[in-house]
Amino acid sequence: xxxxxxxxxxxxxxxxxxxxxxxxxxxxxxxxxxxxxxxxxxxxxxxxxxxxxxxxxxxxxxxxxxxxxxxxxxxxxxxxxxxxxxxxxxxxxxxxxxxxxxxxxxxxxxxxxxxxxxxxxxxxxxxxxxxxxxxxxxxxxxxxxxxxxxxxxxxxxxxxxxxxxxxxxxxxxxxxxxxxxxxxxxxxxxxxxxxxxxxxxxxxxxxxxxxxxxxxxxxxxxxxxxxxxxxxxxxxxxxxxxxxxxxxxxxxxxxxxxxxxxxxxxxxxxxxxxxxxxx
Amino acid sequence: xxxxxxxxxxxxxxxxxxxxxxxxxxxxxxxxxxxxxxxxxxxxxxxxxxxxxxxxxxxxxxxxxxxxxxxxxxxxxxxxxxxxxxxxxxxxxxxxxxxxxxxxxxxxxxxxxxxxxxxxxxxxxxxxxxxxxxxxxxxxxxxxxxxxxxxxxxxxxxxxxxxxxxxxxxxxxxxxxxxxxxxxxxxxxxxxxxxxxxxxxxxxxxxxxxxxxxxxxxxxxxxxxxxxxxxxxxxxxxxxxxxxxxxxxxxxxxxxxxxxxxxxxxxxxxxxxxxxxxxxxxxxxx
Amino acid sequence: xxxxxxxxxxxxxxxxxxxxxxxxxxxxxxxxxxxxxxxxxxxxxxxxxxxxxxxxxxxxxxxxxxxxxxxxxxxxxxxxxxxxxxxxxxxxxxxxxxxxxxxxxxxxxxxxxxxxxxxxxxxxxxxxxxxxxxxxxxxxxxxxxxxxxxxxxxxxxxxxxxxxxxxxxxxxxxxxxxxxxxxxxxxxxxxxxxxxxxxxxxxxxxxxxxxxxxxxxxxxxxxxxxxxxxxxxxxxxxxxxxxxxxxxxxxxxxxxxxxxxxxxxxxxxxxxxxxxxxxxxxxxxxxxxxxxxxxxxxxxxxxx
Lengths: 279, 286, 304
Description:
The complex is a heterotrimer. By secondary structure, chain A is mainly alpha-helical. Chain A is 74% helix and 2% strand. Chain A is built from eleven helices and two strands; from the N terminus they run H-H-H-H-H-H-H-H-E-E-H-H-H. Chain A has helices at 2-14, 16-43, 56-59, 62-83, 86-92, 97-130, 138-164, 169-195, 222-234, 236-244, 253-275, and strands spanning 202-204, 210-212. In chain A, strand 1 and strand 2 form a beta hairpin. Chain A starts with a helix and ends with a helix. The mean pLDDT of chain A is 87. By secondary structure, chain B is mainly α. Chain B has one domain (2-181, 257-282). Chain B has a two-stranded antiparallel ribbon with strand order 1-4. The model of chain B has no long low-confidence stretch (mean pLDDT 91). By secondary structure, chain C is of the alpha/beta class. Chain C has two domains: 3-223, Rossmann fold (3-Layer(aba) Sandwich); 226-287, 2-Layer Sandwich (Alpha-Beta Plaits), CATH 3.30.70. Chain C has eleven helices and 14 strands. A six-stranded mixed β-sheet of chain C has the order 6-7-8-3-9-10, sandwiched between helices. A four-stranded antiparallel β-sheet of chain C has the order 2-1-4-5. Chain C has a four-stranded antiparallel β-sheet with strand order 12-13-11-14, covered by helices on one side. In chain C, a hairpin with a 2-residue loop joins strand 4 (58-63) and strand 5. The radius of gyration of chain C is 24 Å and the shape is elongated. At the B-C interface, helix 1 and helix 6 of B face helix 2, strand 6 and helix 3 of C.
């Protein structure tokens, strides 16, 4: 396993694709901070109120970009093991399929973390002067950081599942990229009914208290709400949407669910890979 | 050229890819109409009164949805179908028997375009078949609808020209798949961003407390996000130029100058085809 | 002599690397031209150039006397069939569909010729099996069938027996000989399996580092491969004296063995040796093979 990992990491270091991914994420980080800077200049006439952005607005966007980025990277990088027949060499050298699978997964997580770092670097460096410090408690912030990192691992686990079980590189790329899009559409649609507020309006009593007014007929409650919320928290794309808006209802729950994703995808993927007939 | 086309169409018929794509389009067309109907019923719209559906232009709303996703489908289809010429090295068989690279390029472009058109047609027909009984007939003026259809076909040609450019000049199928798909995603995001900036209102109205404690509209102030002058024109031009920008406009039936859109789409198509064919001519094949 | 393919000073450079360096060769009509060279000598590059897949950096070539820059070359190419490196076939189609596809590319009006073509290469029983699931040899044969689809006068085969089993090699050899004899197809065949090539070729071109080192017909090659007599004697010094006296070229291999490069009268040699007090133990006639000719020609220097 350690041999496999060091072989993979060596290949990663030598891969132009990997450096391209880092460069792309770095460029996106620069682009986003510059965009905020331009906004700030435009809104400067409105005073401080118009130009306030919390760091969390842009910090976690990598969870979106890398969802797509890894969907392209993993099939291209590891699909080469099939197309070049390198996977045979590893099997013949006596490595178990499970350790091959896990070494691929870990390598792709490492690649994703590096890429996330490449994005965060300019956001933090330039952003120090642009953004307001996040209006969150340190503990919540730490949970958000942890959550997005585990989310990256969940994406990697999903794409590794596809790539390791699809012997054609281009087909794996199509499945990962379009599958990702399809999951986004699902999560986007799950989110819509959840967005409706419970009450149409709030009434101020004479005592100055706010009490709920008319109930909203489109509000989804009860069991249905629980199911939809769980689905939204469980799907990596649902998590991405939440982090992207920096609007996370259960910051402690998401990393846990992402971890469940990693475990489930990996168990399924490794089991399928064990039974696969290789050429 | 005709020989190449007939060979391409034979292969098209034999590939599952086209039938799968067509199936998806037919399914989406029916689903779109059905989904709209169910949504209208759930919000209590009485669709048995023809005027309700007519007023809301429900059929056109779903009918033109294809413009939003056909780019993605074409990206996937063209990069896979044409990428096979490289991965299976069959491009050699065509060149070695004396077909010019230009005619191979043109035949491949036409094949991808025809296949995508077929997918659009599948979507339209199934949307009409399911949608007309449920949502009623079109209510917007026929010239507008015809413009949108013609324009979206040209937009599709522009998409196909871009993807053919990539697939014919990239010797690795999986790389062209990724470039085409990520490219179309990126172009979609760009179009959404441009649209957001262009749609920003000119003035923002805040609220303020009046003398007697009531909340009233404040005097509208100019919106810093509103684009003016040359900058607005550049944004508008880009929005009209990008096939993804056009796809948003046709999907929402929200366009002012269809002739300009069609002209730009034709220009995109011509530029990419000329550049792609020129590159292929010089390319060292294996 | 009429040449199907003639190249003049053909060069192809990839950045600094000279894959072909001023190469001049001639493939006579009706021949089976064996194109011999080590891996990386430039065989496949030449084939890519003449198939129009790449343009030469300098120099020129002509097919049936038509220069490659002329417009008519496209029509001439229609008379060519080629298998370059790996067979060019659609892996997702069956053997039959692959041929149908190529018939369309060529503009052949009917598909009637397909069963015969499949039979010719021994793939008539593959049915609905996709080419992806073919063995290497079957793919190779389907590639040849695709190359034959246009009824070519000139067939270019790049390492056609690579990866085939012994029976497959024999089949391909028989097929090439049949096509050459019955249909008078000129064949350019590149290979580094020299023994196999020597059973087919009527002409040879030896390529090394992108240049033709030697071009000759099979007959000339035979003449050039020196006949030699290996003799075993009790005293090679006596043998040397005798052979010097006869004015014959020879090479002493050991105390008792020597190679003599001449047609000798064995009785005369035996009598002369007797006079020197040396016995002739045995004499064997040997051919210098294509292999040793090749090694002599290009040397045993560093590969690639």
